[in-house]
Design goal:
The protein has 489 residues and is an alpha/beta fold. Helix content is 20%, strand content 17%. α3 runs parallel beside α7 and α4 packs parallel to α5. It is globular, with a radius of gyration of 21 Å.
Length: 489
């Protein structure tokens, strides 16, 4: 067993706490994730740092809360690189410690400066912040363009058919989800009605690059194929792979062999496809006899969402399934369902199987992996990343976080969990989630609400009036974390 193991972070997209079997789901089966949990440590208080993708991914890589940097909301199709070259990241720390590093899958952190050069070199990007290799979905698949980025270029791009990406239609005859709605194989419910590709309209506009375009149904297979090839080429280790699945994000178009595999529509089928991806990576580790030398962390970038812009049956076919488990809220929300997600660690022979109630977060992986690899963590880097490695490994007496800040996409709304207490600060009312939760909620409260989680996991009863001193204490703590500019001592 290696002292410094290979590390694989498997990050799902929009996977809720209640969406997998080992966290209570009964409406569908997730045998591979369940096996990972049975052979490792399943966290009941595992979090991402934000309730949308871009800020969580920013925080995971940089070890800092996203609200501390401007322009870390959901990145647009032509958005520049959000993480600037020279920034200390989890990848650069591990590379410094001798790891080979790769990210394969969804990026959604911008490329280029001041904008992506889709027909030239796409830099800066992952290779400028510590990754040796990348094979990416550059934005997120409900946004254009539907092409891959390998290292600094779009592969298979024909110079005679250049790729153009814009914020407005190139001409009045450009087909869109509005003008050609009858041709769509998946209809949109709100937004998502610009350029059409593969029978699905997206956010944004693009033309050209036809030889480079992918088919939505093949994304899961592409990530697995590329990851397995990279693992085999670097099996001598140590290596760090960030496997960034696009499942279960919209548009939910799993491969045909998964369509109809659950009773929950394409959303459930996409969970089944993600579970298959996890199993394929585990098979590769077993085949190469790397399981005892590899730490796997499975997590999600935010909580669940049902109707997120397409009519894919997620609401109509939900049945008794509870995507957020016992929690309220989901994607876009600072309630527990927005950021408390499946979180599993496995290192065969090193982590004793079990269940942990320690509070851990994806923002902590940078400092924790640095400690594991023996990499020096600069004082001015990863400012909110705490070393919770003993908790991740399930060591006796280990402590998790004593507090955790949660943010929405823009950083206007915050949640603060400290021990058994949760403070919610609502400055803005954002999107609401249709039937992510069935819990009765009173959303008529003021700026602050206080919940006692052991008695009220669903955050249905504001107890601020009964506990004014605790409310005052929590408000002061939240203000202090925001004002300090860092929470790592």
């Amino acid at each position: 067993m290696a002292a410094t193991p290979n590390i694989i972070v498997i990050m799902a997209d929009d996977l809720g706490y209640g969406d997998v079997g080992c966290y209570g789901a009964t409406a569908l089966k997730t045998p591979n994730i369940d096996r990972l949990a049975a052979e490792g440590l399943r966290f009941t208080s595992g979090y991402c740092s934000a309730s949308t993708c871009t800020p969580t991914r920013f925080s995971f890589l940089t070890g800092g809360y996203a609200f501390r940097q401007k322009n870390t909301g959901i990145a647009p199709p032509n958005g520049p690189a959000i993480i600037k070259p020279g920034t200390v990241t989890v990848a650069s720390l591990l590379k410094q410690a001798g790891y080979s590093t790769a990210v394969i899958g969804k990026w959604h952190l911008g490329l280029g400066d001041p904008a992506p050069d889709w027909n030239g070199e796409l830099k800066p990007g992952p290779l400028e912040i510590g990754f040796d290799h990348c094979h990416l979905l550059p934005t997120t698949n409900d946004r254009v363009p539907q092409v891959f980025v390998s290292d600094h270029r779009v592969p298979n791009l024909d110079p005679k058919d250049p790729l153009w990406v814009g914020d407005a239609a190139p001409d009045e005859n450009h087909p869109t989800g509005i003008s050609h709605r009858s041709t769509l194989k998946m209809d949109w419910s709100h937004g998502h009605n610009n350029t059409i590709h593969n029978g699905i309209s997206r956010i944004g506009f693009y033309t050209g690059g036809n030889a480079a375009r992918f088919r939505d149904e093949d994304l899961g297979d592409e990530w697995v194929k590329r990851s397995n090839e990279w693992i085999e080429a670097h099996q001598g280790g140590p290596f760090f792979l960030y496997f960034a699945s696009h499942d279960i994000h919209v548009p939910r178009i799993p491969h045909e062999r998964f369509q109809g595999s659950t009773k929950l529509g394409f959303r459930g089928d996409s969970i089944a496809e993600f579970d298959w991806c996890v199993g394929e990576l585990m098979k590769t580790l077993d085949r190469l006899k790397l399981a005892e030398n590899t730490l796997i962390v499975l997590c999600s970038d935010n909580g669940p969402v049902l109707d997120d812009g397409y009519k894919d049956g997620a609401v109509e076919k939900l049945g008794a399934h509870e995507p957020a488990g016992p929690f309220s809220g989901g994607k876009y929300s600072v309630l527990e369902g927005g950021t408390r997600t499946p979180f599993i660690t496995r290192w065969s022979g090193r982590i004793k199987p079990g269940v942990s109630d320690k509070v851990v977060c994806t923002v902590d992986l940078a400092a924790s992996f640095a400690a594991l690899a023996g990499a020096a963590l600069p004082a001015n880097a990863c400012l909110d990343s705490l070393n919770v490695l003993p908790a991740l490994l399930g060591e006796s007496g280990a402590k998790g976080r004593d507090h955790l800040l949660q943010q929405d996409n823009s950083g206007a709304n915050f949640g603060l969990r400290a021990g058994d207490w949760k403070l919610v600060r609502m400055k803005a009312r954002g999107k609401t989630q249709a039937r992510v939760t069935r819990k009765a909620r009173d959303d008529s409260g003021g700026l602050h609400r206080l919940y006692h989680l052991p008695d009220d996991a669903g955050e249905t009863k504001d107890v601020s009036a009964e506990h004014p001193e605790k409310l005052k204490e929590m408000i002061a703590k939240l203000d202090a974390v925001i004002a300090a500019g860092r929470s790592r001592e």
